[in-house]
Here is the input.
Amino acid sequence: MYAGIDIGTLTLRLLIARVSQGRLHELDADRRMVRLGEGLHLTPRLHAAPCLQAAPMARAIETLVEWMPRIAKAAVHDVVVVATSAVRDAVNRDEFLATVKRRTGWDVAVLSGEEEARLTLLGIQSGLPPDVAEGGRYVALDIGGGSTEFIRATSTQPSAMCSINEGVVRLAEACLRNDPLTPDAVAAARARIRTHLHAVQATLGSVVGYHLVGTAGTITTLAAMDQRLDVYDPARIHNYRLSWEAVSRILDDLLSRTHAERRALPGLEPGREDLIVAGTLILQECMKRFGFMECLVSEYGLREGMLLHHWQASQWACT
Here is the structure.
């Protein structure tokens, strides 16, 4: 029995699961959009003073403290906590890590972009449908709040991985602050994404004939919006096939609305109305650059991968 916590730039995610024979059996899960990386485009610090509402660091730490009784009740064998883009880039990360340790007793592993990509791939692989898993050729895409990871995976070659310092929070705060959005703002965001994709393409090489598998909040939200789900249902999200036409249609609809008007859209998670355009632009530009006509949506990602990796390490330690 393990508890895994992913401290992301936008979202904190909790997963409590039993691992048996290398398979995860979820017992409890939660996620909170706390925007820990709020304001990082202005200064590379995790802010202890309020930006929009409560202090971002306080929001994150209070969420962790709130989860402690749930984890204690589950009587887990280990708690595995990792942090990604916002924490690894922050000049005051040691202050944040020390506060988490003092308040919860947990040590936080700060992942590099490559480590984040590798663990995300491990999580995605555990939930692939047979046709994609057996074909063994896919690009995994993880659009986060502060960074985006690209992993080319095949059954015969080592994986190629690329992490870029661009995510929905960074892009929205840098380019997409207007409400409603202007064409110039959207064009600037697209240009910024395309610059990053030059480096991604150089790292991944040709991906002709590969599947695209996407994970994390933007892509799962788009799957919910395409199905017009009033209530989020993981069973209807996992392995959903999101077409290029659907991504383009949803983006056009989002661009025609203000933040307030987007809140009425079925499937759009509350609190994501000012960030969903940034994530959708990243997905659309990626699909355009590499010629993907659909994206297979995965509910599995970093949380699952970190627990599977921890379980594997415990098995190796026993041999």
Q: What stands out?
A: The two ends are 20 Å apart (CA to CA). The first strand starts at residue 2 and ends at 7.
